[in-house]
């Protein structure tokens, strides 16, 4: 049989009709107009509909709907502030950045303490997530550690954060071993003072005894630094807190994914005097050698700080709890919020109310830097609380009232 060519006029008309379908639901559109189409027209429209559906699905996977995020908010919200759970021994010490994990039947918290000289990392223990006892240091200054060396790049700043924790929401919250070691990442620096000088990200490990205060073994030079040849525009001044997860699906090609906030160049359309921090990514297959992932940060805002992201997975949604500070139209505020992702790279910001913000005398100046766990049906949201006298410690809010 001789092949029948489509008339040129009909081809043009089909092109116009297909273009006019953009914005409609593809498959539903095919069914609604199928009876009015000739067979050769129907084939073309079906192919168009399948292509459009594919593009819509790909696009949908990159953005988490606010309806889903509303469900996440309802799951994680903690309207009841319990109060302070770890406080400094005197006004010269400032306690910050809680990280909470479970080992055996006890809970443990690492936190950092600023002494006027710099940061050190401490360990505390709890039976119930509300009453905590400090055990001792796990990362000390260069001249107080077991091996004394003030010439090290991190001699006066060692602010540590746990790594490779079970990310499942309401999961075990245990730390996992890689190469028979537990791991943490930390802010390191040589200069004394509050976040002064060159700050970089280091890695440390421990073979065992993570529930006891002892020095973790630091791994040589920093793994990410402002002076690296591949440093990005948003991180070329100082690097700050990091969190590392173990993605066993290798979504990004390597199993270990680090989120970290840093300070760098500001954009041209915002004031140069404002402090910026943004959250970006790096990946690794051995916890020591890290590769920056893409050029731009993945969670950031026009003005102010977006920082201290920590990751958990609720169902099929990755949730990043983070804090914001000094944003546009919120010049003197700090607050904890969250963003969601399906792929660890494209993050959708929650557009509703804050998870935590200042409301009590003990957090009247700042309420920020989250760490959130759910245990036996109760959500515990730990955060750094600072009062008007600049006393800084760790507070917790809960999903049910624990003050009774």
Please characterize this protein's 3D structure:
Helices cover 14% and strands 38% of the residues. With 404 residues, it is mainly beta. Strands 14, 15, 16, 17 and 18 form a five-stranded antiparallel sheet that branches. A four-stranded antiparallel sheet has the order 1-21-20-19, with no helix packed on it. Strand 2 and strand 3 form a beta hairpin. Helix 2 packs antiparallel against helix 3. The chain is globular. The chain starts with 7 loop residues before the first helix and ends in a 6-residue tail after the last strand. The N terminus is likely disordered.
Count of DSSP H/I helices: 4
Strand content is 35-45%
Number of strands: 21
- What is the residue-averaged pLDDT? 87
Structural class, from secondary structure content? mainly beta
For the largest beta-sheet, the strand count, sense and barrel status come to:
5 strands, antiparallel
Weakly predicted, low-confidence segments: 1-27, 53-60
Terminal CA distance reads 86 Å
Order of helices and strands: HHHHEEEEEEEEEEEEEEEEEEEEE
Radius of gyration: 25 Å
Q: Helix share of residues?
A: 10-25%
The shape is globular
